[in-house]
Amino acid sequence: MEPSQVAIIGSGLIGRSWAMVFAAGGFKVKLYDIAQQQLTSALENIGKQMKELEESGFLKGTLSAEQQLALISICTDLKAAVEGATFIQVNPPYFVPLVEIVPHPETDPSTIERTYSLMKKIGQSPVKLNREIEGFVLNRLQYAVISEAWRLVGEGVISPTDLDLVMSDGLGMRYAFIGPLETMHLNAEGISNYCERYREGMRLVLNTFGSVPEFSGEIEQKINQAMSEKIPVVPKVLDARRKRRDEYLTGLAKLKKQMKSD
């Protein structure tokens, strides 16, 4: 039987985002939190976001913002929130569709498959991990990039703002559409040919990587100063930049969807 109702535990940023994702997929959503005022505020925020997304043409799903909002109810009683729910989601969001599904050794394989199918049904991009690992996959890849970025700035190779440009106008352009392994495959006559050509060069560069940074001290101050000059640490400025970031992500998601359907 297809699930028709989900329970979201927590109405913070992540909980609100998941509520919007499931409502866009046509599911009834019970949003739980311990404080009524928090829930009321969350529902108002969701309604505002949906309206803005609809007006900009970025609202997910086939239902209107009003119809999607009507699918979301709020609840301060945990037992009542999960009653009748066939899936309970605790975390990630609306603008980045990736979902890492990580099984416990005792997880029934059918649970993994149901979760995978549900994520696909609501428009997410699920991936299955074969086992638990510290940091999961996305964070491990992200931390590898952050670590080398920190070292490059710390060693005076490049400025913080130019480092970000290398990613946003360089690697990020490519990786928004294909991953590192497919990139290797396409940049030569397949993976084996790529390794034959570049393994020594890659190993030579990788052996120059330093130790894991402390993410503190003078380098932290240097990067913080550069980022603060670019984007002042003022709530209004940060919120505006985050909104712009989400607009970029939504536009990119829409472009990718259009390209896949062509």
From TrEMBL:
* Classification via InterPro entries: 3-OHacyl-CoA_DH (IPR022694), 3-OHacyl-CoA_DH_CS (IPR006180), 3-OHacyl-CoA_DH_NAD-bd (IPR006176), 3HC_DH_C (IPR006108), 6-PGluconate_DH-like_C_sf (IPR008927), 6PGD_dom2 (IPR013328), NAD(P)-bd_dom_sf (IPR036291)
Q: What is its main location?
A: cytoplasm
**E.C. no:** 1.1.1.45
One function term, GO molecular function aspect: L-gulonate 3-dehydrogenase activity
Q: Residue limits of the 3-hydroxyacyl-CoA dehydrogenase C-terminal domain?
A: 135-190
| Example of a GO biological process term | fatty acid metabolic process
3-hydroxyacyl-CoA dehydrogenase NAD binding domain residues are 5-88, 90-130
Subcellular localization, per the record? Cytoplasm
The yes or no answer to whether the keyword Oxidoreductase is present is yes
GO-annotated cellular components: cytoplasm
Q: Which Pfam families match?
A: 3HCDH, 3HCDH_N
Keywords for this protein: Cytoplasm, NAD, Oxidoreductase, Phosphoprotein
Q: Which Gene3D superfamilies match?
A: N-(1-d-carboxylethyl)-l-norvaline Dehydrogenase, domain 2 (1.10.1040.10), NAD(P)-binding Rossmann-like Domain (3.40.50.720)
Q: Which family does it belong to?
A: Belongs to the 3-hydroxyacyl-CoA dehydrogenase family.
Tell me what this protein is called. Answer: L-gulonate 3-dehydrogenase
